[in-house]
Each structure stands twice: as C-alpha cells, then as structure tokens.
Amino acid sequence: MVNRFMQSRLRDLVFLAIILFALPAFLSNPFHYDLATQMAIIAATVVGLNLLVGFAGQISLGHAGFFGLGAYFSGIMTGSYGWSSIPALLVGAVLVGIIAWIVGRPILRLKGHYLSMATLAVGFIIAIIINNETWLTGGPDGMPVPSLDIFGWELSPFGSYSLFGMELDGNQAWYLFAALVLLVAVWFAQNLIDSPIGRALRSVHGSEVAARVVGVNTASYKSLVFVISAIYASLMGGLYAHFQGFITPAVAAFDFSIVLITMVVLGGMGSTMGVILGAVVLKLLPQVLADFQELETVMFGLILMLTMIFMPKGLLPTIQMAVSKRMKKKAGGQA
C-alpha cells in the first residue's frame, strides 16, 4: 500500500515536470511567460495552504498576510538595506514562521466560524500595518523591489541568459526558475504527506478526539502545519516581489486571501495536483472572460458557483472519479 502511494506521488511529480518544461513550446510572447510565472508562484503558495486546509482540516482566511509579509520583508531588506535576496527570503520565512507559531497557538484552539474570523483578523492586521507604515513600506503607493540575486547571479525579466547552450530572455529564465521552485514545493509537500506527520495531520482532519485518543498531540501538529503553510506563503511572496519588481498592499489584501482559499477548494482539497489545477484555472479565467467587460465578474462568480455545485469535491478529484468509473464500466463490459 505504501509503495503504491509513493509510486503515485512520483508519477504525479514526473507528470507535472513534463507539463512545466513542455509548456514554453506554447508560450509565444512575454505576457504569456509573465502569466505562467505568476501561476507557478501562486500554485506553490496554495500547495502549502492545502497542507493546512486540505490535510489538517483547518481554515485560513488571512493567508495573504503571510504572503505580503514575505514580499515586503524581502523587498525592504534588499532595497533599503542592501541584503542579498537569498538571505532576505530565508530570514523573512523564519520570521514569518515565528509569527505564525505565536498567533497560531491560541487561534487554532478555535473551531468553525470562530477560527475563520480569527485568521481573517490576522490577515487584516497585517494588511493594515503594511498600508499604514508609509515610512517603511511606501503605504498605498507601494515600493520598488530589486531583481532576484542568487549568489551573485541577477535574475531579471529584462536580462538575457545562457543555459546549457540555450539563449533565454529574462521572462523565459524566470519561468524556468519558478517552475523548478514549484516542483520543489510539490516534492516537499508530498514527502510531508507520506510521512508520520502527514498521517497525524489526516487523523486531525478526520476527528481530533479520535486522534487525541491514539496519542496524537493535535495542538502541536496544527501549529506545525500552520507554520509550514505560512513559510510557503512567505517564500513565494518574496519571489513574487522580486519577479514583479514593484509591490503594493494588494499582495496582503483580504481579496487575495479569498482567491487563495478558493483555488484550494476549486481544485480539490487534499489533492496537491488538484490545487495546482485550481490555481491555473483561477488565474486563466479573468483572461478568458476579459472580452465580456462589465459581465466578467458576474460570469466569473457563476462559473465558480456551478463548479462547486456540480463538482463539490473539486475539479481534479471529480475528473479522476469520472475516468475511474468509465474505465471500470468498460472493463466490466469486456468481461
């Protein structure tokens, strides 16, 4: 059973790698690369959020706050204090993890609507601080962020690079880097899910009472996964800031938190590949619906509503179940 699960995870990872590295063949201009890079960064963020929501069964309506903290910390330290990007990203992730642990210990004792409101309040507090501390963050006007510096190698959308004999422009290089980051994020999440920690998280999701009865320290595991998901958000927020070159308080806004949680639910809670699909769909829909102008928001909401009514388990799990049923029916007919 364990070997079968591991083979399935490896197959998913290989399939994702093939898609990511084959995708540039279909990207024809800088806008396409920009959109694909954003998808990869946001998808890695929701992979971390899925650990909290899909596997541990906890809700977070303020996760954009951690994303924004990572973005602004890296932007401030590299832009104002001359730090290199990698130390700024790592230190920012550690600090965000500590903040998540401090706030997570009390609020994760709550359940249901109370937990939702508490995480929402955390996100609002972070967004307000970023918006009001103009001297540090630039306030509503935002702030510029330097290019990503990887051990002296500067990655910029406006640069040109040579990789294994291939000449790449900055957008192509950034996409390949973001794709690699997404693969690492998925690999870590899958290994965590298959570990004893992952089994403990699933037991917490199933029944906290039953988990405690068999000796699972539910409070510690919920705090741990909250910290891990916040670190995911912080790292991806920092990368997003360096990629965009400019950030505003919108990166920590409530709207963005709702988008992140919707990606998890739409793609399929508890499905790592599903939430990536959810991220792709929600990033692409506004582009597809742009021609409808004032009806764009209405159609966007309608599509999401119909999807959740007819695919309550999420896009990918529903598709997988439909394919499985069809294969079983075909096998039964042949027998």
Automatic annotation (TrEMBL):
GO terms for cellular component: plasma membrane. Keywords: Cell membrane, Membrane, Transmembrane, Transmembrane helix. Its main location: membrane. It is a multi-pass membrane protein. GO terms for molecular function: branched-chain amino acid transmembrane transporter activity. It is found in: Cell inner membrane. The chain crosses the membrane at residues 38-57, 64-83, 89-107, 114-130, 173-193, 223-241, 253-278, 298-319. PANTHER family: BRANCHED AMINO ACID TRANSPORT SYSTEM PERMEASE, HIGH-AFFINITY BRANCHED-CHAIN AMINO ACID TRANSPORT SYSTEM PERMEASE. This is Branched-chain amino acid ABC transporter permease. It comes from Marinobacter profundi. The lineage of its organism: Bacteria, Pseudomonadati, Pseudomonadota, Gammaproteobacteria, Pseudomonadales.
